[in-house]
Every structure is written in structure tokens, then in C-alpha cells.
Amino acid sequence: MFAIKKNILRLLVVLLWIVLIPVLTYVASLDLKIGVAMVVGIIGMAICLICVINYRLGYYIFITITLILPLLERISGSSQSVGVVMDGLLISTLLGCILRRGDKSVKKVQFMKDALLISFYLYAILLIIQVANPAGHRVFAWFIFFRVFVRNMIFLGLGLHVFNSMKDVRTFFKFWIAICTAAAVYACLQQWFGLMPYERAFIAKYPKMFTTTMIISGIRIFSFMSDAASFGIIMACNIIICLILLTAKMVNLNLKRKILLIVSIVLQGLALGYSGTRTGYVMLPVGLLLFLLTTLRNRNTILIAIAFGFTGLVILFGPFHSNGTIIRIRTAFLGKQDASMDVRDENRHRIQPYIYDHPLGGGVMTTGGNGQLFYPGHPLANLQTDNGYLRAVLETGWAGVLLVAANFFLLIAIAVRNYFRIDGEVNKLLMLGIAASMLEMALAQYAQDASTLVESSIMLNALTAIAIKVKYLYALNTES
């Protein structure tokens, strides 16, 4: 009986496609835009259905599509509502998780006792209070900000259901390194052969979206991601993770995989250089420092450190005086105080009295371009913070910036604790990779609002879910 029902279902699907093909062709012949919209809608519905059926697969589909959405937007030639697409995929994946009742190992997570999760709850309460902030209380602006926060929390919660063993964790890192390597390859192609015609057309059509992309030495490469800053931050974090994995013994990580890691590191290193993200350049030695302090007795660690140090010295002091990428890297470490830094320092000093006078901040979405859009005339409107911590204290007060800092501290502490408690060299190195990359992210927050960028927030919340879940998976293993 089951086989008959299955065959009937297949027959209905085939008949549906047979009917749809001529219908879509006819509609497209009348109006191309409507035809394209129908095709995209059908494909989108099919992808959402897959996410409902298999929420684990949906988790990876959400990450992949979110990362390449800017590329699809540029190919389309017009600005799209990418947030609606992300919400649709995430809600479909969440629905699939609810219908499947998730994973039983989630019950081991102490949701009401875990310090990192409690910090998220407190931040959520703070955001809810912000809706009544007298300095900035436009509900629509608050809703947009809170919607992004809820999206991140749903993604984090789904991760707690997806990562049910160290095998799942290793699968994620294989996927993440692969997709970041693909982004690096695309970035290298952009640098070597120039931007694609649709990318040049999109930049010409929406120049305000690429104001920080055009610099004196050329174009900051952004790959298929939204901008060069988020791309550079992800490359910097991923390079450290790959370098840490490279120190594993041959018994645990064979020669073939190490060669692939080296190729990935080289490509991502080039891509980071082409991105022109000076914050990313500074992030690398910081992440490597935590790694060195933790595994200094490891011979492979010392070799990696020597190779990294030698490469850095060659880039900084080598006879390369006409390469724009190398010159920009040098300015991150050897450059004098430039005009942009002077402007940033001046803004910080000028706004300090406002911080002291507003313990709850000026309200979410009140700084920078968002403030100019939603709160014209606000004291913080169009103030370019260029600093995640400064933005947090200006918009949400001292409690907000303390919670942001606490989140990073607790996440790094959990990852380091996992490193010393978990078994298996590769598993331990993955936990150390999380700690080092998150320390990089915490540093990047000082130079720009790194954690709220779409791509970097995906990485941050995925690694947060892994660190939390592994903490309780290890407890589960020791009990058994």
C-alpha cells in the first residue's frame, strides 16, 4: 500500500511539472518579470519545503544561501529584500525542527543556568526595555533591530539541535572551510581578472552601497559577500582555524587533508589581502597568540609560528614598494596615525558627555546612517562609530556594552574549557580554533561593528552553538 501511494505521489509531481512548464513559458512570453518571479517563487517554495522536511539540511541551506544572496542580488541587477528570504528559510527550518521535535540531547543543555545563555536573555530584556527609551523610541526602527536579534537567536537555537556529536561538529567545519575557500577563489578571480560585468553595473547603479569599497589603491575585493569588511573578517578568522588544524599529527590528519588546508590558507590569505580590511590583518597575530600560549610545547605549533612570523616580516619589510595590497597591509602595522583615525578619535571624545548623560543610551538604530534614516535630528544621527563597543554603549547604554563584552568573554572561556576537557586531538584543535577566532572577532569589534554584519554573525552564532553544545556533550559522555 505504501509503495502504491509513493508511486501515485511521484506521478502527481511529474504531471504538475508537465502542466507548469507550458504555463510558465506562456506567462514569461507575456511579461518576463512575472515569469522570472514565478520561477523564483517555485524554486523558493521547493527549497523551503526541503528545509521543513530535513531541518539539518535546512541549516546548511540557510547558511549557503545567506552567504551568496549578495551575489544573486548583483546578478539580478536590483536591490532585493534579502531579509525576507533569510526569514523565510529560517522559519521553514525552525518549523521542520519543531515537527521533528528536535534532538533529545538538547535536554542536557542547562538553559536557565548556563552563563552565556543567561547573558543573551539579559540582552533580550534590555532590548525590550529599549522600546520605551525616551531618547529614541520609534517602534518601527526598534522592530527592525529586534527582528535581527531574534533571527540570530533562532539560528543559535537551531544549532543546538544540529550539533549532536563531534561528528556533526567536524562536518560543519568541513563545510565552513569549503565555502570560505570557494569565497577566496572567487575573490582571487575578481582581483586577477576584474569584477564581473553585472558587478560593475550594480556598483554603478548603487554607488552609496560601495562607498568604503573604492579606495585610492583600487577596489577592495568583496567576493560573493555583501562587503569587503565582512569578507575580510571571515577570512581572518578562518585562516587561524586552518592554521591551528594544520598542527595536528599525521595520524589524526593525513597528508592529503593537510595539503588541502595549506591550499585553503594560501587562497584565503590572498583574499584577505585583496579585501583591504586592515582590521583583518591585525586580527591574525592576535588569534595566533592565543593558539601559541595554549599549545607552546607542540613542535608543529612552533613551526607554524616561525613560518607565520617569517611571512609577516617579508610582507612588512620586503622589497615590495609598488604593490597596493602590501602597502595597505603595512599601514595596518607600521602606518602613522592617519586622517580617518583622527576623525574617529575626535568623534569619540565629542560624544563622551552624551554617554554619561544617557545610561540607557540613545535608543537602537540611532547612530550612523540608520540614525539619519529613522531619527533625523537625533544627536547621534549620522555619527559614524566605526566601533561595535561604542555603538553598543551609545544605543543601549552601559548595560548593553557590558553584555556584549561579557558574551565574547564567556564564549572564549567555554571554548578554552572545552579544549582542555574534550578527547581527540582534532576535536581539541577545533575548540581552540573557536576560541582564537572569537578572540579575533572581539578585537575586530573595536575597529568596526563586526559581530552585527550578516556573514560574520552567522559564523559567530554557529560557533557559539557548537561551543555550548560540546560543553554538555562532554558532560554527557563523562556521565556514561
Walk me through this protein's architecture.
GO terms for molecular function: ligase activity. This protein has 18 helices and two strands. The chain is mostly helical and 480 residues long. It has two domains: 6-99, no CATH class; 102-476, no CATH class. Strands 1-2 form a two-stranded antiparallel sheet. It is globular. The two termini are 42 Å apart.
Structure described in brief:
The chain is an all-alpha fold and 480 residues long.
How many angstroms separate the termini? 42 Å
Number of domains: 2
Please give the order of strands in the largest beta sheet.
1-2
How many helices? The count is 18
SSE topology string: HHHHHHHHEEHHHHHHHHHH
Query: Which range does the strand content fall in?
Result: under 5%
Mean pLDDT, rounded to whole units? 83
Helix content: over 70%
Unreliable parts? none
Helix/strand class: mainly alpha
According to DSSP, the number of beta strands is 2
Radius of gyration (CA) equals 24 Å
Largest sheet, strands/sense/barrel: 2 strands, antiparallel
Please describe the structure with a list of short key phrases separated by commas or semicolons.
1% strand, 2 domains, mainly alpha, 480 residues, two-stranded antiparallel sheet
Helix and strand topology:
Layout: H1 2-30, H2 32-53, H3 55-76, H4 82-99, H5 115-130, H6 139-162, H7 166-193, H8 197-205, E1 214-215, E2 218-219, H9 228-246, H10 255-275, H11 278-294, H12 299-317, H13 324-333, H14 339-357, H15 368-374, H16 388-421, H17 425-447, H18 454-479
Antiparallel strand pairs: 1-2
Helix pairs in contact: 1-2, 2-3, 2-4, 3-4, 3-8, 4-6, 5-16, 6-18, 7-10, 9-10, 9-11, 9-17, 9-18, 11-13, 11-17, 16-17, 16-18, 17-18
Transmembrane segments: 7-28, 34-52, 57-75, 81-99, 111-133, 139-163, 175-193, 213-246, 258-274, 303-320, 397-417
GO molecular function, one term: ligase activity
InterPro entries: O-antigen_ligase-rel_domated, WaaL-like
